[in-house]
């Protein structure tokens, strides 16, 4: 227990510091407003309303959790060096890899809190919208038989909530922690937070476009061997963030297989472990 206490203490302190930074509250509030207003942006059939609500809300959760992950991670190391907090911690002594691990755990706690708040509002808006549609359905089918009314209610409830919501939200959180670990690796050798943010943002877009580019690149019948090796190298170095997109299945109501979710979560855990280990390795040899 003694060996893990510095990491836990750094994680708790990091979480507290990040919560106090107003910039992340602005991002979170903006995300919550987008989710809250999404219920009133569609005036179509109830199926289309729920689909658009899920699309906008889950998209906002993914984008803003990614923004928080990148900005929070890119800022902590330069800030600790400017405040000279890092010198106090490392002089205790706290191993450098435990310092980084504690920081990453604190950021993961912040992301968990942010995703939980956005999920609560999203589910609350979804439930309110379902209640409104059910009331309208009962009013419109006042003269229908009990069997017809029950069938209409089942159709509404089946469209609103499904088992895909939980794994979809979990994958959004895993993706955000992955981006935090990637940004942590960049910050381990970067000289400024601006450089770290720009590099992380570039890798964010590369990660989302990687699958499309790879498919286009390797779609020809005659593909050179070096092209396949290069594509494999890019896939290893840069995470395929499109693999963490389950929104289409959630919106369509298609069941997400358990094997697919476990593979996606395992891929995310592998990337997180690799980028954290690389960050610790680079940071260990960095002069402070």
Major β-sheet profile: none
* Percent in helix: over 70%
Distance N terminus to C terminus? 29 Å
Can you count the helices?
11
Q: Into which percentage range does the β-strand content fall? A: under 5%
Order of helices and strands: HHHHHHHHHHH
What structural category arises from helix and sheet content?
mainly alpha
Note the overall shape.
elongated
Count all strands and give the number.
Answer: 0
| Gyration radius, rounded | 22 Å
Low-pLDDT segments: none
Could you tell me the mean pLDDT? 79
Summary?
80% of the residues lie in helices and 0% in strands. By secondary structure, it is mostly helical.
Structure description:
The protein has helices spanning 5-20, 22-38, 46-83, 85-90, 96-140, 146-160, 165-187, 193-217, 225-237, 247-252, 258-284. By secondary structure, the protein is an all-alpha fold. The two termini are 29 Å apart.
Question: How would you summarize the topology of this molecule?
Answer:
Elements: H1 5-20, H2 22-38, H3 46-83, H4 85-90, H5 96-140, H6 146-160, H7 165-187, H8 193-217, H9 225-237, H10 247-252, H11 258-284
